[in-house]
Amino acid sequence: xxxxxxLAVISAFVFAGxxxxxxxxxxxxxxxxxxxxxxxxxxxxxxxxxxxxxVFVDDAEYKMHADKLYVFLDGTNELKRIVALGxxxxxxxxxxxxxxxxTYTKAASRIVMYGAEGGANARLVDSGKRKSELxxxxxxxxxxxxxxxxxxxxxxxxxxxxxxxxxxxxxGNVK
Amino acid sequence: MEGTFENTRxxxxxALAAFFAAFLVQGVFALDADGLREWLGKRTILERxxxxxxxxxxxxxxxxxxxxxxxxxxxxxxxxxxxxxxxxAAKVQFFPETGLVWGEDVVxxxxxxxxxxEAQVSAASCVVDRTSKSGWAPGRAxxxxxGTEVCGESVYFSxxxxxxxxxxxxxxxxxxxxxxxxxx
Lengths: 175, 184
Hints:
The structure holds two protein chains of two kinds.
Chain A: H1 2-14, E1 33-37, E2 39-43, E3 48-59, E4 63-73, E5 79-91, E6 95-105, E7 110-114, E8 122-126, E9 132-136, E10 138-142, E11 147-151, E12 154-157, H2 164-173
Antiparallel strand pairs in A: 1-3, 2-3, 3-4, 4-5, 5-6, 6-7, 6-8, 7-10, 8-9, 9-12, 10-11
Chain B: H1 2-21, H2 36-62, E1 68-77, E2 83-95, E3 100-111, E4 117-129, E5 134-145, E6 148-158, E7 163-174
Antiparallel strand pairs in B: 1-2, 2-3, 3-4, 4-5, 5-6, 6-7
């Protein structure tokens, strides 16, 4: 199903570039996904599906919450674009992404997370072994190249276990 | 007289079945985000249509007169004569003056050419307007199609617009998707 697969793609690439345990890999596997919301509208003619109110995506690999979730399909009902709006949270065991708005555009193979206007930034948190946090007004991922661009950013990295003097020395040696 | 009744019943059931079957065809147009405002306008218009049908449903209930009981009828066939679509309903009544069809415990089954069920649509009760090709199910309704189940309560549907709106407790469960290369 296009919607479910697309949401899985979003979740997968929200965490792209971060530590990925090989044991979590899923390749060509089928799995079930459940999407619930207060209200849902599906317009096959126009290629729009809207989940409205307390949207919850429950997948074996991740959970996603949002106030609204739009899914845009093309003429053959293939996924074109997804837009999650309001209190967007995507989580798995150790990683989480939070933002006010998230978009996935298939043609551009790109995900963009936006912070709330005048409010909290978009945020990516890894609470696994190597704790880290990425924070910005706008976080853009290019899925194919795994490039990330952050606007208005703050990056926090857990340095526990890292010899900072040694690291500083290394940096000092860089000409 | 018996023949007339049979024809009326068949017409009512065919309308219901054709209606539900319309939701399983593929959409042919696409909408970009730029058209969203226009689409939200359409959604509002269809909300009004749902309200009209909710009233029509209530009127049907108030005017039920000897609905057909425990009806199972094949309403469409494959070229080789095997059943393509059949409809089963605990109660059905056609209102010729308004073009409305009311049904209770309605199950529409669609079969492949080799007799396997491809899709099943169920509604605790519903009303279908043959003129506007739209309907309303005030209680629980569900569609099971190729490993995906869509269900909820207070469901509006339009065959003309290929549109379904679930007003309460919307749920989609899919167990039929390939996630090649997807990893966390």
